[in-house]
Amino acid sequence: MPKYPASIVEAFLTNCHRDPNKCCILFEGEALSYEHLRVEAARWCAGFRSWGLQRGDRVALFLENSPSFLAAYLGIYLSGGIVVLVNTQYRQVELRHILNDASVRICVTDPARRIELDRVLGELLALEAVVVVGGGSAGDASNTRARSITELDDQSFLAQGVDSSVDLPRSDAVALIGYTSGTTGRAKGAMLTHGNLAANSAAVIEAWHWTSEDVLLLTLPLFHAHGLGVGMHGTFLAGSTVHLRRRFDAADVYEALCRGEVSMFFGVPTMYTRLLTEARRRIDEGGPRPKPIRLYVSGSAPLSPRTFAEFEDVFGQRILERYGMTETMMNLTNPYDGERRPGTVGMPFPGQEARIVDVQTREPILDERPGEIQVRGPHVFKGYWQQPDATAAAFDADGWFNTGDLGWRSSDGYFTISGRARELIISGGYNVYPREVEEVLLTHPGVAEAAVLGLPHPDLGEQVVAVVVRRSDADGPTADDLVAFCRDQLASFKKPRQIFFVDALPRNALGKIQKHILKEQLERTTPGGDDGIREARVS
Ligand code: MLC
Ligand code: AMP
Q1: What is the pLDDT of residue 111?
Q2: 426, 427, 494: which to mutate for ligand 2, most atoms within 8 A of CB?
Q3: What is the DSSP letter of 188?
Q4: Distances (CA, A) of 482 to 57, 159, 471, 496, 501
Q5: Measured between alpha carbons, how far is 109 from 112 in angstroms, rounded to an integer?
Q6: Whose CA is nearest to atom 9 of ligand 2?
Q7: Ligand 1 binding pocket, CB closer than 6 Å
Q8: Residue 524's pLDDT band (cuts 50, 70, 90)
Q9: Which CATH number fits domain 424-525: 3.40.50.300, 3.40.50.1580, 3.30.300.30, 3.40.50.2300?
Q10: What is the CATH number of domain 34-193?
């Protein structure tokens, strides 16, 4: 098992001590050294402590990628707090649930997100303060007054100076809560300890030969396991450099690759297909070709063997595909040195275990036979926040975690993911739980029944589709009305991209909606045909 420190923040400080002037983050033309980021993190720590944050209190980060995100992130750990990650696209429904469920006391946000937060502020029962990073507040002050929530801009919050007293977190203390797996419509908070995060990151840097010389181009959002747990934790642990972007832009990434200024790129499959389109266009126009880099990694959703092959053809490099999840960070990886086999996710990271069990009997099964993937090791989370039953159900008696992903292992040890035991749509690397979207649709007065499912999509891998029974066809909501209704309440990536109207949903004898029948029907439907699907809206 790779050796690992008690926490990522401890590894960061060790690397800072070793080489304080080394560039840690390059962001929008500004280079921040390890020492610069340490001082910023110590200012956040001073701000949290003087505000009265107690050990174990939850602090939400609801802001875009930026050095401030990372300084606040490390500052929360230095002050003993627990980080709650919030997707920047989240809207009323998700914000209300996550911030209340985790009893968040402080939310760090930015002016754009402050507007959305403001819509639910009066309902966030534990929230006491909002810190707005960059550019002051765009919120409605009457809301903060109504609930006596303190609102501060980052400059006043950070005016306490620097708290460099070192009180490092213990390995077994909860570091962060990531919300995921809302099979019931409500996401659960996965608690990862400082030790989980450090152990996983140590395994990743060993497997991928990551060193302090590496320069990572990171365009993934920092509020998820991929961007934060893989990209940033690896950077802090290896003592390397990250070129951080606010968001993914294929042209910008292509140009950075042509300039040859980075050694690694991590992305979701949608980023790779967009990068391929960009490369073909540029090359057709006689533009430059990308310089080879040390490592391309794909994960968060299945990378099709076709994209793998096309990428090798155009970029001359074989993408390394790996598999992870919020509860565990990274589980399986194709080998760095050996064969990177398309369509597979490789084998366990060093010091971690994985196996396939029969879905019914829960007994381990032979290679080449399909079942559910289970994983075990120091990277596996502590449990779901305040959900002992869900936690108990997630593990077997020997501590194996049930991933809910289906797959098989080849006789030479490569795992392949073949499907999911739970209902989950992965769209462009973001997870969408059908139940959550159905619950919102059902609150619309014109909707009698709704079923949400995933259908293939060329850019996003899968797309969200809804099948709706209206209360009245004549003056019922249109597809556009329902899309707008969802976008108002949920993150925009969860909105259905297609809505089909039917007279009734297929149900079995117990009344359960038969989504597999709907899916087959939709995959061969032509809107306006004779299959009972009368209208479709495609966005
Ligand atoms: C954006 N949109 C999406 C979408 N992303 N719709 C469906 N699926 C998505 N993934 C919508 C927006 O809501 C918006 O709609 C419109 O597209 C434009 O938004 P945008 O922000 O300009 O989109 P774009 O930049 O094109 O984003 C695409 C993307 C992004 C692929 C760059 O989705 C992305 O960064 N995905 C990565 C997600 C990730 O990090 N996953 C890791 C999870 S951790 P409208 O209607 O409002 O205009 C995990 C574990 C592991 O899974 O193994 O890693
Ligand atoms: P999340 O819980 O949001 O972290 O999403 C994790 C899920 O993403 C996993 O349970 C898988 O279903 C999926 N996933 C991650 N990496 C891959 C991959 N390389 N191939 C297929 N699915 C993946």
Answers
A1: 95
A2: 426
A3: E
A4: 38, 46, 13, 9, 11
A5: 8
A6: 325
A7: 220-221, 224-227, 247-248, 268, 270-271, 299-300, 324-325, 427-430, 460, 492-493
A8: confident
A9: 3.30.300.30
A10: 3.40.50.980
Domains 34-193 and 424-525 share a fold: no
Q: Give me the phi and psi of 501, to 5 degrees please.
A: -105, 135
The domain ranges of the chain are 34-193, 424-525
- Atom 12 of ligand 2: nearest residue by CA position: 405
CA distance 141 to 123: 15
Pairing of strands 383-384, 188-193: antiparallel
Ligand 2, closest atom to CA 403? 10
Q: Tell me how far apart the alpha carbons of residues 335 and 329 are, in angstroms, rounded to a whole number.
A: 17
Instruction: Count Cβ atoms below 10 Å from residue 211 Cβ, excluding itself.
Output: 12
Q: At what angle do helices 305-315 and 269-284 cross, to 10 degrees?
A: 40
| Mean pLDDT score of the chain | 94
Q: How many CB atoms neighbour CB 79 within 10 A?
A: 25
Per-residue pLDDT, 182: 63
User: Is 321 close to ligand 2, i.e. is its CB under 6 Å away?
Assistant: yes
